[in-house]
């Protein structure tokens, strides 16, 4: 069975862990340069503050609802992401990190009641250990796990956990209530064409004649239809990309032991991730990498490091991405391990149009030229085959990047100077029971 | 064709077998493993559950009798159960507070939310951070 586990309002929840005064207060998190809203708490969402748009457009509304506004604190989010992934991995046979706050788990094929108990236990553990709330959807395929994850949040009585039912009547009911536009992995255009074929709900698509679906000219719809019927056919490589982040990863053909090879692979994933950003006209605020070392040899060889670094400003530039990614490789790589997989993740995505000028950042012109160059590289690679043109791995010279992030919370978990403070309460500390009580 | 066993340390192996008779049954002993002892690592001692452990700084009035001084580094483990008598980080009115969980308050003090259990308080003596004066 497959589970999709994701954190609810991850960035806002991270801000709350060490500042309990924020409980119940609407929270907005802004991109690196305080330009755009990249995350909201449930309260801010309920108040109708849109996601991804420029902050200045909603500043008045934010003040009116008493929202607390934060610059994004990626060291904090990255640390909590790493802890969450570790905790969640303890419940699974296998884990595939999907974005900063989502992962797919492979679970044993247990009866639904036991899966439900496992999912509840997972949810309670993450909440107790980290103060984060996760939603868990479990199903026989990725698409059904995603469907369950979505419904676990939408339907209140599910309480954040839903296992795909064994009873077929109940399955029909769940899929019948799900518009095809809400099924994971469809572009808007494709969803519209499905509706033209009178496939309005997920159930319609599941029961459709596959030869009809195939005539849409894409394999995606057919694969998703099969997955909805409980037939796994999406692998890790063709899983639809996360909506608010980008992930590029792949297993090495054979275990790799040297830094140069890992660095090269990560640089390649960073370029591919940049390509995806440019395709969608988006800019990333933060980049993360993960490495997986295989387990044979010692019991200590369970090496699965992950780390994140904020990008100087929201960017889609290959050079910046590759540079940031390879710097992280240098930091995480430990010799003596056999690496079997690596990946690059991008998050904090903003729309191109909303990116603001920043006088402290390198000249816009130069940035544009670099982005044009990245695009030219994409074009060459598309024409002449992948990896024709690549970013050399030599350093690009340190730029004096200065981020505008006036409202950033302390780096509670990654800086000794920023540790949360606890007030000593003398009258609540003395062990009264040992002295006076019987 | 020549068969050679170039570098196997037979002498060491025999000695290892001689002092620990049982190990022959387990196959070739790794000679190096007998001597390899990793250096002591304070982190593994103080933080057995790193995923759920956070560091905090105590502030306010020092309580030498309880072993807690202002400025101490606190190790807080969220995975531990808050039992009576344990020192905890509590959330009261939105502020993190250092308390001992009383026997009478268990379960019925709605205002106290347990954030985590304090497992260690680490005190640094003046001047111990070095001449450069780094650290808190």
Provide an overview of this structure.
The complex is a heterodimer of chains A (438) and B (136). With 438 residues, chain A is α+β, with helices and mostly antiparallel strands. Chain A has 16 helices and 14 strands. In chain A, the strands form three sheets. Chain A has a five-stranded mixed β-sheet with strand order 5-6-1-7-8. In chain A, strands 9, 10, 11, 12 and 13 form a five-stranded antiparallel β-sheet that branches. Chain A has a three-stranded mixed β-sheet with strand order 3-2-4. In chain A, helix 4 (74-89) runs antiparallel to helix 5 (112-130) and helix 12 (259-279) runs antiparallel to helix 13. The longest helix of chain A has 21 residues, at 259-279. Chain A starts with a strand and ends with a helix. Mean pLDDT of chain A is 83; it is low at 353-360, 393-403 and 433-438. Chain B is of the alpha+beta class. In chain B, 15% of the residues lie in helices and 26% in strands. Chain B has a five-stranded antiparallel β-sheet with strand order 1-2-5-3-4, with no helix packed on it. Chain B is globular, with a radius of gyration of 25 Å. The termini of chain B are far apart. In chain B, 16% of the residues are buried. Mean pLDDT of chain B is 76; it is low at 1-11, 13-26 and 132-136. The chains are: A alpha+beta (438), B alpha+beta (136).
Strand content of chain B: 25-35%
What is the H-and-E element order of chain B? HHHEEEEE
Residue runs with pLDDT of under 50 for 5 or more positions of chain A: 353-360, 393-403, 433-438
Order of helices and strands of chain A: EHEEHHEHEEHEHEHHHHHEHEEHEEHEHH
Integer-rounded radius of gyration of chain B: 25 Å
Radius of gyration of chain A, whole Å: 23 Å
| Largest sheet, strands/sense/barrel of chain B | 5 strands, antiparallel
| Main beta sheet of chain A | 5 strands, mixed
Q: Order of strands in the sheet with the most strands of chain A?
A: 5-6-1-7-8
* Average of the residue pLDDT scores of chain A: 83
| Helix segment tally of chain A | 16
Spatial separation of the terminal alpha carbons of chain A: 54 Å
């Amino acid at each position: 069975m497959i589970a999709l586990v994701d954190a609810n309002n991850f960035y806002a929840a991270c801000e709350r862990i060490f500042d309990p005064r924020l409980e119940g207060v609407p929270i907005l998190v802004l991109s690196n340069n305080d330009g755009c809203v990249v995350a909201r708490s449930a309260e801010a969402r309920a108040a109708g503050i849109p996601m991804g748009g420029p902050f200045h457009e909603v500043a008045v509304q934010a003040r009116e609802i008493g929202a607390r506004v934060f610059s994004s604190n990626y060291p904090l989010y990255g640390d909590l992401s790493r802890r969450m992934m570790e905790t969640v991995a303890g419940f699974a046979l296998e884990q595939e990190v999907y974005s900063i706050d989502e992962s797919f788990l492979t679970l044993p094929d247990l009866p639904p009641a036991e899966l439900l108990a496992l999912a509840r236990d997972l949810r309670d553990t993450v909440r107790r250990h980290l103060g984060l709330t996760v939603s868990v959807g479990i199903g026989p395929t990725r698409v059904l796990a995603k469907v369950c994850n979505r419904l676990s949040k939408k339907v209140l009585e599910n309480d954040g956990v839903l296992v795909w039912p064994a009873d077929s009547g109940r399955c029909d009911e769940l899929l019948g209530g799900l518009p095809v536009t809400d099924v994971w992995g469809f572009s808007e255009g494709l969803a519209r064409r499905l509706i033209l074929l009178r496939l309005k709900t997920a159930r319609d698509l599941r029961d459709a004649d596959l030869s009809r679906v195939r005539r849409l000219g894409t394999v995606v719809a057919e694969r998703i239809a099969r997955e909805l019927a409980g037939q796994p056919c999406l692998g890790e490589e063709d899983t639809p990309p996360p909506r608010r982040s980008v992930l590029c990863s792949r297993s090495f053909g054979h275990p790799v032991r040297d830094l140069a090879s890992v660095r090269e692979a990560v640089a390649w994933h960073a370029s591919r991730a940049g390509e995806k950003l440019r395709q969608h006209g988006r800019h990333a605020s933060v980049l993360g990498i993960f490495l997986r070392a295989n387990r044979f040899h010692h019991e200590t060889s369970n090496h699965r490091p992950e780390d994140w670094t904020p990008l100087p400003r929201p960017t889609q530039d290959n050079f910046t991405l590759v540079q940031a990614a390879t710097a992280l490789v240098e930091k995480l790589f430990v010799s003596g391990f056999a690496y079997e997989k690596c990946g690059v993740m991008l998050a904090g995505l903003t729309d191109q149009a909303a990116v603001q000028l920043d006088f402290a950042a390198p000249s816009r012109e130069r940035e544009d030229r670099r982005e044009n160059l990245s695009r030219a590289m994409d074009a060459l690679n598309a024409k002449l085959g992948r990896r024709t043109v690549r970013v050399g791995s030599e350093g690009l010279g340190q730029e004096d990047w200065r981020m505008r992030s006036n409202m950033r919370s302390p780096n509670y978990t990654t800086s000794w100077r920023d540790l949360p403070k606890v007030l000593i309460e003398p009258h609540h500390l003395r062990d009264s029971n040992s002295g006076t009580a019987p | 064709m020549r068969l050679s066993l170039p570098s196997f340390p037979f002498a060491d192996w025999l000695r290892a077998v001689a002092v620990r008779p049982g190990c022959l049954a387990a196959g070739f002993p790794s000679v190096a493993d007998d001597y390899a002892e990793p250096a002591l690592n304070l982190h593994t001692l103080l933080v057995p559950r790193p995923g759920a452990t956070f560091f905090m700084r105590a502030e306010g009035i020092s309580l030498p009798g309880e072993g807690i001084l202002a400025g101490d580094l606190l190790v807080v483990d969220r995975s531990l159960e808050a039992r009576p008598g344990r020192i905890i980080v509590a959330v009261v009115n939105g502020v993190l507070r250092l308390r001992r969980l009383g026997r009478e308050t268990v379960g019925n003090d709605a205002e106290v939310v347990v954030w985590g259990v304090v497992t260690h308080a680490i005190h640094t003596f003046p001047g111990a951070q070095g001449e450069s004066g780094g650290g808190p």
